[in-house]
């Protein structure tokens, strides 16, 4: 939904803000001079506070609804930007960044769950990945603004998207899935008709199917107990390990420290500013976010994930070798652009798709919040220790680490990630009722079932 997309733009701007903020704060004439240690805190504290928003969001979207939670999130993100924009000391800046992180955590879970629940199976992939397109747009926008504007003005302009999202959300109904679970059947029917473009018969059948499915569930005090059931725990494990390996593949490190990484790669001889190359990486990220939406419509989730992981690994190793050998031609930024394109087209968007598609409806809020909480902690950890990794591994070692992590992620996708394209959320839930967590084992078991059925028919 468009309101979710607009809201996600501001989260992308918050993630990309350090790349333009820190070079300005580190200049000798800065009124808020920042050294490398404080800079790492300013960059990473957003992801450090995201888990708070994610955990709160998991309960809020189940208690007060998906749409109301998104309204609150927009107000919180505006507060974060205002605090950062008026900061006269590091404490205020860190507070503003902390608040922005809480807001990002709130919005990510609520937006992904809302999009997944209100969309049809065929459109779900596109709608689930759409917030990541606007996320990439936000990164590009803040990079572009930072190249020509003072950091305070950038913070002020960054409040515009959440204000727009607040206005838009008034025109959207609440998720019909949530309304049914709260017993508001007539409102759910009206909402479903709205989401299905006035196709009353189709919407009516969908609502009746949901009512039948939820009729035997005991909702009170169910979520936390249910999360330890195998059919809930398996998708959670798949998501957590995917997110950890995705973080170690460098997706967000390049977002936070784009200008610094480019400078460390030895591109000074090219007579092109690091900030310009950083803006171009953000442009590539935005373009390939759009490409990922299209590919999710035509390709299976597994194939897209495998393609993205393999190519990310390839260009990570190429960049590591080039930096080690001291290559200083235009080949370096081109490889960096290809690396960004490779991880954007699949690895960047799939965590959000998984939040909306893998978890059972009864714990979607809590499980999504927990998954994104652990995801945010891993991003925070990597962002915070980047200066240490840069000193110990050097940039070529860092890209080698990205390459190894991408290869491990490729293996994890191949072994465990189920295919959810064109599947209803009910079918995905039923899928995890089976015993094994390995996708490969299930395919073999399905083939054995078919062979047994053919033998019985003969």
From TrEMBL:
Chief place of localization: membrane
**Which keywords fit this entry according to its UniProt record?**
Membrane, Transmembrane, Transmembrane helix
What are this entry's molecular-function GO terms?
transmembrane transporter activity
Source organism, top-level taxon = Eukaryota
Which residue windows are transmembrane per the record? 40-61, 68-88, 94-114, 126-145, 151-172, 240-263, 275-299, 306-331, 337-359, 366-389, 395-415
Q: Report whether Phosphoprotein shows up as a keyword of the record.
A: no
Location of the protein in the cell: Membrane
Domain Major facilitator superfamily (MFS) profile per the UniProt entry, residue ranges: 1-421
Membrane topology reported for the UniProt record: Multi-pass membrane protein
| Recorded GO CC terms | membrane
Q: What is this protein called?
A: Major facilitator superfamily (MFS) profile domain-containing protein
């Amino acid at each position: 939904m468009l309101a979710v997309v607009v809201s996600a733009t501001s989260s992308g701007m918050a993630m990309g803000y350090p790349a333009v903020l820190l070079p300005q704060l580190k200049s000798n004439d800065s009124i808020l001079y920042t050294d490398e240690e404080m800079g790492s805190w300013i960059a990473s504290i957003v992801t450090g506070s995201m888990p708070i928003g994610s955990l709160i969001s998991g309960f809020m979207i189940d208690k007060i609804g998906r749409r109301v939670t998104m309204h609150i999130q927009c107000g919180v993100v505006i507060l974060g930007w205002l605090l950062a924009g008026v900061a006269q000391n590091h404490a205020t800046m860190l507070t503003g960044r902390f608040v922005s992180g809480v807001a990002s955590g709130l919005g990510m879970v609520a937006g992904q769950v809302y999009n997944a629940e209100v969309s049809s199976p065929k459109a779900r992939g596109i709608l689930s990945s759409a917030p990541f397109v606007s996320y990439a747009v936000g990164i590009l926008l803040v990079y572009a603004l930072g190249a020509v504007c003072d950091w305070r003005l950038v913070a002020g302009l960054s409040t515009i998207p959440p204000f727009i999202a607040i206005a838009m959300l008034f025109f959207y109904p609440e998720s019909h899935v949530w309304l049914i679970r709260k017993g508001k059947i007539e409102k759910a029917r009206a909402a479903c008709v709205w989401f299905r473009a006035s196709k009353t018969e189709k919407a009516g059948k969908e609502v009746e199917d949901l009512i039948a499915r939820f009729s035997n569930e005991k909702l009170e005090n169910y979520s936390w107990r249910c999360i330890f059931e195998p059919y809930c725990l398996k998708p959670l494990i798949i998501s957590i390990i995917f997110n950890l390996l995705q973080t170690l593949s460098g997706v967000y490190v390049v977002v936070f420290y784009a200008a610094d990484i480019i400078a460390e790669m030895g591109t000074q001889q090219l007579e092109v500013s690091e900030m310009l190359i950083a803006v171009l990486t953000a442009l590539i990220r935005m373009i390939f976010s759009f490409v990922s939406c299209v590919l999710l419509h035509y390709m299976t989730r597994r194939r897209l994930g495998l393609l993205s992981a393999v190519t990310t690994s390839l260009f990570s190793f190429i960049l590591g070798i080039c930096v080690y050998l001291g290559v200083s031609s235009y080949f370096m930024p081109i490889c960096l652009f290809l690396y960004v394109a490779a991880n954007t087209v699949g690895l960047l968007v799939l965590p959000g798709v998984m939040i909306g598609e893998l978890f059972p409806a009864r714990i979607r809020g809590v499980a999504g919040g927990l998954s994104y909480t652990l995801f945010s902690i891993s991003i925070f950890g990597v962002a915070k220790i980047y200066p240490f990794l840069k000193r110990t591994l050097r940039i070529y070692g860092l890209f080698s680490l990205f390459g190894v992590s991408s290869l491990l992620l490729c293996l994890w996708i191949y072994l465990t990630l189920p295919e959810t394209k064109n599947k209803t959320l009910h079918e995905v839930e039923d899928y995890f009722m089976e015993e094994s967590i390995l996708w490969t084992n299930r395919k073999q078991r399905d083939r054995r079932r078919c062979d047994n059925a053919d033998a019985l028919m003969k």
